[in-house]
Specification:
Family: Belongs to the sigma-70 factor family. ECF subfamily.
CATH topology of the largest domain: Arc Repressor Mutant, subunit A
Number of domains: 2
Distance between the termini: 50 Å
CATH class of the largest domain: Mainly Alpha
Radius of gyration: 19 Å
Keywords: DNA-binding, Sigma factor, Transcription, Transcription regulation
GO molecular function, one term: sigma factor activity
Order of helices and strands: HHHHHHHH
Pfam family, one: Sigma70_r2
Structural class: mainly alpha
Organism: Vreelandella sulfidaeris
CATH superfamily of the largest domain: Winged helix-like DNA-binding domain superfamily/Winged helix DNA-binding domain
CATH architecture of the largest domain: Orthogonal Bundle
Length: 187
């Protein structure tokens, strides 16, 4: 088997993961498919430059990350971001009593052993579902930060957000994901 043939097979097995990630980030099936296609073409064209300093999958996801950012910059597909104040449901103050303890209704439910959770395929499917249920702007910022590993400054530059607004959006994402996971996993 030639190295190119092996590379093509490896890329073919990555394609579903790449598409799922691009759909989550772009919220547009056509744009996701196009971006993944561009990523795969680049990976095939440049497979000889892969040095092996990281896993092959990480290298291809790095290409996808850059393609997504290029798409954001090129198309200026930014949502209308607003510096909104936190609503009552999002406010940290409403989660805690005056003495600093959790409000009974806001107290997180124990999820069990974290190591077992990470190995549970059903948990990952639920997390994917919860991510897809987030509003597009919130999901975009969250995935850029937590899945793409971008800094807050990079996100703010890419999406023309203020630093404060970015942190508000990340806070909302975490609260909504926690609620969704607790409803889907623990009920």
């Amino acid at each position: 088997m030639t190295a190119m043939h092996s590379t093509e097979e490896h890329i073919a097995t990555l394609r579903p993961k790449l598409v799922a990630f691009a759909r989550l980030q772009l919220r547009d099936n056509t744009a996701a498919e196009d971006t993944v296609q561009d990523t795969l073409v680049t990976a095939l064209e440049k497979h000889q430059t892969f040095s092996g300093r990281s896993a092959f999958e990480t290298w291809v996801f790095g290409i996808l990350k850059n393609k997504i950012l290029e798409r954001f910059r090129h198309e200026r597909r930014y949502l209308a971001w607003q510096d909104e104040e936190l609503s009552d449901e999002d406010s940290f103050e409403n989660l805690f009593k005056e003495n600093g303890r959790w409000q009974a209704i806001s107290k997180p439910i124990p999820w069990g052993d974290p190591d077992q959770m990470l190995e549970n395929a059903a948990f990952w499917r639920l997390l994917d579902t919860c991510l897809m249920a987030l509003p597009a702007n919130i999901a975009q910022v969250f995935t850029m930060r937590e899945l793409m590993g971008m800094t807050t400054q990079e996100i703010c530059e890419a999406l023309t957000l203020s630093d404060a607004n970015c942190w508000v959006i990340l806070h909302r994402a975490r609260l909504r994901l926690r609620g969704c996971i607790e409803k889907g996993w623990l009920t």
